[in-house]
Specification:
This protein has 13 helices and 15 strands. Helix 12 crosses helix 13. The radius of gyration is 22 Å and the shape is globular. The mean pLDDT is 96. It is an alpha/beta fold and 450 residues long. The structure holds pyridoxal-5'-phosphate (PLP). The site of pyridoxal-5'-phosphate (PLP) has 14 residues, from helix 4.
Length: 450
Amino acid sequence: MPEPAPPSHVFYRKLGRAYPRIVRGEGCRLYDDRGRMYLDGSGGAFVASLGHGVPAVAEALAAQARALAYVNGTVFTHEPVETLAAELAALCPGDLDLVYPLGSGSEAVEAALKLARQFWVESGRPQKRKVLSLTPGYHGNTLLALSASARAHYTTYFRDWLVDVVRVPAPYAYRCECRGQAPYCPACSGDAIEAAILREGAESVAAFIGEPVGGSSTGASVPQPGYWRRVREICDRHGVLLVADEVLTGAGRTGTWSALEPYGVVPDIMTLGKGIAGGYVPLSAVVAPRRIVDVLARGSGALLHAQTFSHHPVLCAAGVATLRHLREHRLIERCARMGQVLHRRLEALRGHPLVGDVRGRGLLAGIEFVADPSTREPLPRAAAFAETFTAAALDAGLVVWPNVGHADGTRGDLAMLAPPFVVTEEEIEEMVALFTRALHAAADRIGAAR
Ligand SMILES: Cc1ncc(COP(=O)(O)O)c(C=O)c1O
């Protein structure tokens, strides 16, 4: 008889559930302390882009910790932050030239929105304070980032603490009026953003923030090709800063460095996170042009967003090593190539009676589950299908990322795949086979048709 496990002192993310204990990761695979293998189909939360267990990144951050673990960003600069900033500036489009490193995506969004606000105040236009964001959409869980997120259930206990953010319907083709076909509805054309700016009064609007390709909130919805060019033009015409939240989609996830890249659109501010250090450390960044930062330089002299661990040497060194690894192994190109394989293979799911849509770009895919594909009727929330499916996938040895509530704020079930860029064709085949098996198992568990 094995000894019973001692009670854990971990304040777990989900209370009252037993977790497999992972001891090792290699490539797309994770191993628990009982020797069980899991295929990491989602790179955790869209993070593990390089794959698990890359020695070069582990060694780079260990070497940096030995040389210099920490200094405060108000007093010193250092090689890793200088190199990271130069490399990110070279990768980001247009005049996005200055990099402010932080830890999480939420922090980057908070700092980006504060930068937009501070820019307008220091430009002598303090009335520009409103923020517009897309719904569904997600930008993080600290209170300003959560205010900008259309995630009603995350706000349950905190509504009184949130600030007003103006919501604009997202270009979510599966559930909008035009179904993503021309002539486009206001959500898909971008007209909804202009209407909101006019309604609020352009003189009061500081910034519009959006995810260039949908993250989990719209299950990797890709807007029509002209959407972001139109958004850029609207923001320019009304003097509104365009903030591209590339925390999830950036660093190659959609097959190009940023998801905006194929549209030739340069935002005023970009946020990065998740994949920029491949999960080896928590690292995020705000990237902004000198024309914005210079206003602060000539005025107050600093972005009012002091955080102890910004510009952290070890985190920056991990970022530099990640960028080098992406470059040396041509992993973003590989992500684009393997993305096509993934999307081709996922097409087979469309025949399943609970699969409404399969979409995405690069190694980012969303599979939306519905009660009836012909009407797009969502499953009843009581069936908890996304959760049931995710549990069935884990039982089958596959890690996926679920989302709920996108259809109407309460209903809506989807699962996302975002494997490491090193994924092989065989692993994609295995992933889709496990996904299909889990789909059948979950359908059985909720008593739905197969
Ligand atoms: C688009 C986007 N922005 C911001 C965030 C917040 O990042 P974090 O969870 O690292 O705070 C996320 C997280 O999922 C995200 O997907």
